């Protein structure tokens, strides 16, 4: 029937989860085969699948109260709460999808301390939200507390406000104080622009799931980066091409970050390794890449050397920073950037420059090759 199973049912408390429902053969999602898959995957021992409903008969609909006592029919309790929730908001209970309610009940019975509902499988307002509230209130009656909801489509900021209002109304009407503070999580191709919109519009969002735009770079899907020689046997060299952007900058170099009086970095400066390091308060003559034909004079308030050697001759020569240290360094560096460089809309380009001495070497090697 298309069930996927690795052959191990009892592994000392470890649960097998059948995650093949969405990958099954066939184009129709409501053709009945989805439940067949759930049945087949449940038979050899899986406890749940991607839909949160691995067994069509919901064997976990009974739940023990957290304080102890006899098992309670969670499904029946949720149905009674659904009536009360719909009466409160004057919505027809028949609009709430029963399959979604059954999935919520199954998930809550299996994970009563970690129940989080995905609200947009059907209609958020008419189905997902009342079904979640019903199951969460049923859990509360048995001593458990739902941990949140997630939205994955539509106007996330506006929906979060509407859902928060419903939670607060339920909490006040049914005298459940924590209900108004149930965390609201959102996902669905969240980008920097999405975050800016949330901030500008205001929202009741507590958690944001960022996936595609965190691990990929839509603006530059591939990294056009190639290693080029800058020195051979102690002699500086460069690559010559008609495309100036592809010309390399010769020689072994040191890199410095220059800061203004406000503490913001305003330029990174490349110098030859043997050059004296620039000093704070010292006026420098530099050439900005892309504007090499003219000299610019700058006076940094602070100078930070950026280049550190961690590998030499194939060996680690300095302890590598830990992941928390890398993360802290990145966060601090970003926080120091000027708002003009950090803004999303039309940010000011951050300049990189070379010293006059490095620029002269570049010109000499280019002229000598002609």
From TrEMBL:
Pathway of action: Cofactor biosynthesis; NAD(+) biosynthesis; nicotinate D-ribonucleotide from nicotinate: step 1/1
GO CC annotation, single: cytosol
Sequence ranges assigned to domain Nicotinate phosphoribosyltransferase C-terminal in this UniProt record: 253-361
Record-linked Pfam families: NAPRTase_C
A biological-process GO annotation: NAD+ biosynthetic process via the salvage pathway
Enzyme Commission designation: 6.3.4.21
Cofactor needs: Mn(2+); Mg(2+)
Top-level EC class: ligase
Summary of the function given for this chain in its UniProt record: Catalyzes the first step in the biosynthesis of NAD from nicotinic acid, the ATP-dependent synthesis of beta-nicotinate D-ribonucleotide from nicotinate and 5-phospho-D-ribose 1-phosphate. Helps prevent cellular oxidative stress via its role in NAD biosynthesis.
Family annotation (PANTHER family): NICOTINATE PHOSPHORIBOSYLTRANSFERASE
Name of the molecule in the record: Nicotinate phosphoribosyltransferase
Source species of the chain: Ficedula albicollis (Collared flycatcher)
Lineage, highest ranks first: Eukaryota, Metazoa, Chordata, Craniata, Vertebrata
Gene name of the encoded protein: NAPRT
């Amino acid at each position: 029937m298309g069930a996927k199973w690795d052959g191990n049912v009892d592994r000392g408390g470890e649960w097998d989860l059948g995650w093949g429902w969405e990958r099954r053969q066939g184009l129709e999602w409501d053709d009945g085969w989805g439940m067949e898959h759930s049945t087949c995957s449940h038979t050899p021992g899986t406890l749940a699948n991607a839909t949160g409903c691995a067994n069509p008969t919901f064997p976990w609909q009974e739940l023990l109260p957290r304080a102890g006592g006899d098992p309670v029919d969670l499904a029946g309790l949720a149905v009674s709460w659904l009536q009360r929730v719909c009466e409160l908001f004057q919505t027809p209970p028949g609009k709430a999808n029963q399959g979604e309610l059954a999935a919520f009940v199954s998930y809550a019975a299996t994970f009563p301390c970690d129940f989080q509902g995905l609200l947009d499988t059907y209609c958020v307002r008419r189905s997902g939200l009342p079904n979640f509230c019903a199951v969460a209130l049923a859990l509360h009656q048995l001593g458990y507390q739902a941990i949140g909801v997630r939205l994955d489509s539509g106007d996330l900021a506006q929906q979060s406000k509407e859902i928060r209002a419903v939670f607060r109304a339920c909490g006040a009407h049914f005298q459940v104080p924590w209900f108004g503070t149930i965390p609201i999580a959102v996902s669905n191709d969240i980008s920097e622009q999405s975050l800016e919109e949330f901030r500008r519009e205001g929202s009741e969002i507590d958690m944001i799931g960022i996936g595609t735009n965190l691990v990929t770079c839509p603006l530059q899907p591939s990294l056009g980066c190639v290693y080029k020689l800058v020195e051979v046997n102690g002699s500086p060299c460069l690559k010559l091409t008609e495309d100036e952007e592809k010309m390399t900058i010769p020689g072994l170099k040191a890199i410095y970050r220059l800061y203004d009086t406000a503490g913001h970095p305003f330029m990174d400066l490349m110098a030859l390794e043997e050059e004296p390091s620039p000093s704070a308060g010292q006026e420098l003559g530099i050439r900005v890449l892309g504007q090499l034909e003219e000299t610019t004079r700058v006076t940094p308030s602070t100078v930070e050397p950026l280049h550190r050697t961690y590998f030499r001759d194939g060996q680690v020569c300095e302890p590598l920073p830990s992941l928390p240290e890398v993360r802290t360094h990145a966060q601090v560096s970003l926080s120091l950037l000027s708002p003009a460089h950090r803004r999303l809309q039309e940010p000011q380009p951050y300049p990189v420059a070379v010293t006059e001495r490095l620029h002269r070497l570049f010109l000499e090697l280019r002229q000598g090759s002609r």
